[in-house]
Amino acid sequence: MIRDSSGSRNRRPGRLLKFAAVGVMVLFILGLSVDTAFARGGFRGGGFRSSFRTFGSRSAGRTGSLFGWGRSTRRTSTAAAPLRGSSPISGSRSSVAAQRNLYSTARQNGTLFSTRTDAVRSFRSKYSSQYSSRFAAQPSSRPSYIPRTTVVNGRTVNVVYNSGLGGYGYMDPFLGRWVMYNALTDAAMVGVLMSNHGYWWGGPPIYVSHGPGFFTWAIILFVGFMVISSLMRGLRGGRRR
Amino acid sequence: MSDRSDASFWTAIKQGDYVNLNDYQSFAEGGTGGIDYRVRDIRRIAIRDRDTDRVLAEYHLHDLEREGGAVACFAVVRAGDDFELRVYFVPDGFMVGSRDDLIDHGHTWFFLPPPNPDDFISSQLEYAPFPDVPPIEEEGKSTQREYEMAGFGHPVYGSYRRGSDEVPVIITEYATNEESLNPLLLILEERWMRPDGSVPEEGGFLTPMLGCVVEPESAEVFPA
Predict the structure, then answer these.
(1) Cβ-based contacts of A186 with chain B (< 8 Å)
(2) Cα distance between residue B1 and residue B221, in whole Å
(3) How high is the pLDDT of residue A24?
């Protein structure tokens, strides 16, 4: 321990600088981890680039592999691989912005429900007459709420106009007879129709922020502040002596 | 334009044209009218036989945009007289960038592991026949599916013209047999080779996309 003539600890700027440098390095690494954690949410449009490209050789262990490597053979177990702490990938083409708009509309229109069941029940009671599949004669153009195909117990079937049935229906592959198509019991179509009418159920859409945003900058600013304040203190101490 | 059951109907799409998609997923998002997109960019990629230079397949990748900045990729994949229409997109959770960028962020799942995972050159990594695709969430349920190399069964090399440049690309296709809205996975790697023939160590620019096949009836083209 270095002490001055008064016996107190001598806080020399050089030593402080060393501590500050170590602190900067530790927090710099922490900053990288934060970036990586946020990167797990993914990026659209490819605007993000790592700023820390000063390392020499390649190493996948630098930030850890989130999902492991690919394989040259089929997975032997049918059980899903562990998630390794990663966020699931959204397999939906629909954008978060569109979902947010729908949520806002639902709130304004009073068509926001806590569960899908409640939303469907409300929708059916209000719109059942509007989406009928019964037509005495074949319409000149197919109504937009009657799809060309629908899925029945995992099988895709064609939905066609059947004059004998008096409307649009399909041959049920399991029952072996014609069944009238019902847009309000078709889970896919009723979802579409409810969206058209501004129905929403569940909580608000979640937006996951990606990229090196707030936390990294906050850490950098914090580190900068600490370094400057340490230097100032050191210089002041030096002048006093 | 001619018959929509003919590939030339689709390969005649020009930059600035409008495409309306009305497949199931477009219904789900845009309602019964589907979604209107504008064609922002087109990459017409030719896959050639290395020995004979014969065109084996063509990938016409149309970058679609719409209000709000949402994008999709409308692909017309043609092999001889056969063709297929597909819609791809980069999902939240996938990352685009150079091989180095992706590996730095832990996205190693589409490559085979190198002999030494702590010291390797990204451009030398091989695409895995069975990528370890992370769990994908569809309609509130997260599932990890088994994907397998599809298409030609191996990565294919091709190129497209951009101005006076010939941009080299590698296309690797995967598919899952498990139930999924988007069972296709395509990895597009652009500029994996420099114009002088050398290979950048950081690898090309990768765009991994999920997608599905759409029927010709599920798309309309409105010339600009």
Answers:
(1) none
(2) 10
(3) 54
The pLDDT tens digits for B131-176 are: 999 988 887 778 889 999 999 999 999 999 988 899 999 999 999 9
B189 three-state secondary structure: strand
ipTM of the complex: 0.75
Distance (Å) of CA A218 to CA A32, A34, A47, A102, A222: 13, 11, 21, 33, 6
Per-residue tokens: A83: 């998630």
Structure tokens at B174: 């995967």
Which residues, numbered 51 to 110 in chain A, qualify as contacts with chain B under a Cβ-Cβ cut-off of 8 Å? 53, 57-75, 80-81, 83, 86-98
Token reading at B40: 């922002």
Look at residue A19 in the predicted model and tell me its pLDDT: 58
**Contact state of A53 with B100 under an 8 Å Cβ cutoff:** yes
Give A-chain residues touching B134 at CB under 8 angstroms.
66-67, 83, 86, 88-89
C-alpha to C-alpha distances, B220 to A193, B33, B74, B215, nearest whole angstrom: 21, 11, 12, 11
CB B188 within 8 A of CB B61: yes
